[in-house]
Amino acid sequence: MKGNFPINKLRELQTPFYFYNTDLLRDTLALIRSEADRYGFHVHYAVKANANHKILSIIRENGLGADCVSGGEIKASLAAGFPAKKIVFAGVGKADWEINLGLDNDIFCFNVESAAELEVINELAGAKNKVASVALRINPEVDAHTHAYITTGLKENKFGINLSQLDSVLDLFETLKNVKLIGLHFHIGSQITDLTSFQSLCSRVTEIQENMARRRILVENLNFGGGLGIDYHHPNHLPIPDFKEYFAIFHKHMKLRPEQQVHFEPGRSVVGQCGTLITKVLYVKEGASKNFAIVDAGFTELIRPALYQAYHRIENLTSEEAEEVYDVVGPICESSDSFGKSVDLNKVRRGDLIALRSAGAYGEIMASQYNCRQLPKAYFSDTL
Fold first, then answer.
1. Alpha carbon distances (Å) from 211 to 109, 158, 208, 250, 269
2. For 164-195, what is each residue's pLDDT tens digit?
């Protein structure tokens, strides 16, 4: 089963390009809102997944906030109309100008990843006679059971404050007068499909809160980050992740204090399935032991297969002939420029349109101009 695309219209466009199904995006957002609202949860979209202006605008129109990891993402979020009071700023290496940008715009919260960062935010806020609202990103020592490059909740990772250091960081608030502790932040990884990892996170957060309660410290907000995965193998059958079960896990397993607010930062699960990279076959090359479908997109347009050995479903949109086996590769002068090996595709000919599915997250946003290539354009189903 292939995806449903306006092939005649796509043929008229210069490849490679990103094509976004805005109906699917809106359906995904509607489900997120209905399931989050069921429990009064707050949702901030992780801008790093896709910062296309129209994508951001649609997400903002549906009431989500923004989770940013750079000053550039804060600017992009503000430009798309996100209220500053719905913007959270995370990231292990915030530059002074980025912190000042957040302070100047009175964003909701800084997610702080170290004692050193906390002291700098206090200093910069003091220079502006402001008090910065902060949440401490804690490394909960929960294994997300995902790719090593996108695991973020273990003590060997660069992210967050280790549990052994938490008490000493909490002590700093007694002397730092220009920061206010309003929450705890967690993010254990990305593309998580084993939802028991989130149950484990709830248990660990409960332990952390009990230890803080002994110090008579109660925070107003708990931010569980993102991480919910998508089905890269079956984008046509499972286009929207199971947000109902995802949010229900936290409702069932998290012991909240009175008036405590719960926040999430999904990215991939919001936009991953709505985006497709469309590329054209340049040549079909017969090798000694295999056939190559050489397309005009490369890892400059979609780097995930080269960077993470990630799988994307590949479909030949313009052929219904019998399937044959191909290695699908790009034009970049690197051996890692491959989208898939031994891929079953309807017989490929020069000029066929190939769809690389589930490319809405960490696709366009990670494109580069290596080999002096142009960045890919984006087109949308509701305006094509």
1. 23, 24, 5, 20, 32
2. 999 999 999 999 999 999 999 999 888 999 89
| pLDDT higher at 322 or 287 | 322
pTM: 0.94
Give the CA count within 13 Å in the CB-facing half-sphere of 241. 28
Tokens representing 291? 């056939």
The secondary structure of residue 160, as a DSSP letter, is S
Here the tokens at position 113 are 């990843």
Q: 154 versus 126: which is more confidently predicted? A: 126
* Domain architecture of the chain: domains with CATH: 7-17+273-380 (2.40.37.10), 22-270 (3.20.20.10)
- SS3 for 61-116 is HCCCEEEECCHHHHHHHHHCCCCHHHEEECCCCCCHHHHHHHHHCCCCEEEECCHH
Q: Which residues of 215-225 are buried (b: 16+ CB within 10 A; e: fewer)?
A: eeeebebbbbb
CA 56/CA 68 separation, integer angstroms: 12
Per-residue pLDDT reduced to its tens digit, 252-274 = 999 999 899 999 999 999 999 99
Which residue in the block uniquely carries the two structure tokens 């410290």? 217
Which secondary-structure segment (H or E) carries 171? helix 166-172
> What's the token pair of residue 15?
């490849």
Give the separation between CA 370 and CA 298, rounded to whole angstroms: 10
Write down the residue that tokens 């590949």 correspond to. 314
Tell me how far apart the alpha carbons of residues 181 and 238 are, in angstroms, rounded to a whole number: 40
Question: Which amino acid does the sequence have at 91?
Answer: G
Decide the pairing of beta strands 275-286 and 291-295. antiparallel
Q: Which residues contact 155 (CB under 8 A, 6 or more apart)?
A: 139, 141, 162
For the beta carbon of residue 10, count every other beta carbon within 10 angstroms: 20
- Measure the CA–CA gap between 229 and 194, rounded to whole angstroms: 9
Residue type present at position 373 = R
Query: Mind listing the pLDDT tens digit for each residue in 49-100?
Result: 999 999 999 999 999 999 999 999 999 999 999 999 999 999 999 999 999 9
Strand pairing report for 261-264 and 221-223: parallel
CA–CA separation, 250 vs 256, rounded Å? Answer: 10
Q: How far apart are CA 133 and CA 160, in angstroms?
A: 17
What's the DSSP call for residue 350?
Answer: T
